[in-house]
Design a protein that fits this description.
mainly alpha; 0% strand
Length: 421
């Protein structure tokens, strides 16, 4: 048992004047950081009229990666509901991840197994992808920043796990972990390439994206193996995120990838309630599925004011982040749900986002671990989060919880919103 938790995270950033223009503290080029402008253009989506417009915005806010760095990051934190405390928590989490990275660049997920939990094997690729995304989300790349060596080693290790067909996975391809490993690693490489345009990362990132397309069921979604004829909302959501970041990052994607996902989501969403089932139409009250559906549609350009998205946002607000519910083994509550729900509600905006944001910050800031050794040992928990939810304990351990919660707290600048007011 660990004895201490963060009640008031130590603030490590002093306030600075809010800048009106994008700034960088390193050598990341402004246009590169903003993301590929072609990603803002219309996607032919079978006559739906939907465009791939996430992050378009206005008033200098174009481009999805635009505020991850420097003064722009601080401006986004202030504008969209973050604080010095959220930034301090992100920094503490990144330091924990840096201390626990293996020399070869990965995060050895199974090493962090706690208790007698029956944990899935072969998940280090996935959590390493998430950890890399956490550094990228805060503006760190292999070119600059305090964590550039961590970013470089993580990227090189992920690439070393890539197979000739583009799949990023260890030799032991566990059926359950397989699609998550690949999607999370693809998402990380796509964002790294999009932020830096580093030539040596383009080919492995593109091969990984091609593999995503090759795995998709014809005009539908994804599940555990290529073209298996089965689909679930969870795998499909990660694949859509990977394709969206690839498009923004200037990699080649195909409209059929988004078209298939849209068809499956629309077919399986209950139009009366907004619920979507894990593997198809259904009204089971698993809010994580609803949040994944929401974010996927928003990524593909559905207007946030649409009837279904508004119904879904109200469903999420009936069950906002609550640490006590998750600690009470409520399987409806998980950090996975909070991650997707936060990204989706941020894009919805308005009072709904404000309500969600208050609950999310309370849940995460009050329960981040603080104190103890900072030596990279298994007893070093300072800056991390306990893996108390079912999903965290069985699939991700402390590495997963720390990476995914850092990503959640980076919401204010990781992807820019579709709205401008």
């Amino acid at each position: 048992q660990h004895e201490t938790r963060v009640d008031k995270p130590m603030v490590i950033h002093e306030e600075a004047p809010i800048e009106d223009q994008f700034q960088t503290d390193n050598d990341m080029d402004k246009n590169t950081a903003r993301g590929h402008e072609d990603a803002i253009s219309d996607i032919p989506l079978g006559g739906t009229g939907v465009v791939g417009s996430m992050g378009v915005g206005g008033g200098g806010m174009a481009g999805c990666f635009g505020y991850r760095d420097g003064g722009g990051r601080r401006r986004a934190v202030k504008r969209f509901g973050g604080s010095d405390a959220t930034e301090s928590a992100v920094e503490a989490a990144l330091r924990w991840l840096a201390r626990h990275q293996e020399s070869d660049g990965r995060w050895h997920n199974e090493k962090f197994k706690e208790g007698n939990v029956r944990m899935r094997k072969g998940t280090s690729v996935g959590v390493s992808g998430l950890a890399l995304l956490a550094f990228l989300g805060a503006g760190h790349t292999h070119k600059a920043g305090r964590f550039k060596d961590n970013v470089r080693r993580a990227a090189e290790w992920l690439i070393s796990q890539q197979k000739p067909d583009g799949e990023i996975n260890p030799a032991n391809r566990n059926s359950g972990a397989r699609p998550y490993n690949h999607a999370m690693a693809t998402l990380a490489l796509a964002e790294l390439y999009g932020m830096t345009r580093e030539p040596r990362y383009r080919e492995p990132a593109q091969k990984a994206v091609d593999c995503v397309h090759n795995w998709q069921n014809t005009y539908s979604g994804w599940r555990y193996s290529p073209k298996c004829g089965d689909v679930d909302i969870s795998v499909t959501g990660w694949m859509v995120m990977a394709l969206k970041s690839a498009k923004i990052g200037g990699l080649k994607t195909y409209a059929t990838g988004f078209q298939g996902a849209i068809k499956w989501l629309d077919t399986n969403t209950d139009r009366k309630t907004g619920y979507i089932g894990y593997r198809g139409r259904g009204r089971q009250r698993w809010q994580a599925a609803t949040s994944v559906c929401m974010l996927s549609k928003l990524l593909m350009g559905y207007p946030r004011t649409g009837e279904i998205l508004q119904k879904q946002s109200k469903l999420l607000l009936t069950d906002p982040p609550d640490w006590d519910k998750m600690a009470g083994k409520d399987q409806g509550h998980s950090m996975y749900f909070w991650y997707y729900g936060t990204l989706a509600m941020f894009q919805i905006g308005g009072n709904g986002w404000k309500q969600w944001n208050v609950a999310m910050k309370k849940a995460l800031l009050e329960h981040q671990r603080k104190g103890g050794p900072t030596d990279g040992s298994l007893n070093d928990v300072d800056g991390s989060w306990d893996p108390i939810s079912w999903l965290s304990a069985h699939a991700g351990t402390r590495v997963y919880t720390t990476a995914v919660n850092a990503l959640t707290l980076e919401v204010y600048y990781r992807y820019l919103p579709m709205y401008t007011k």
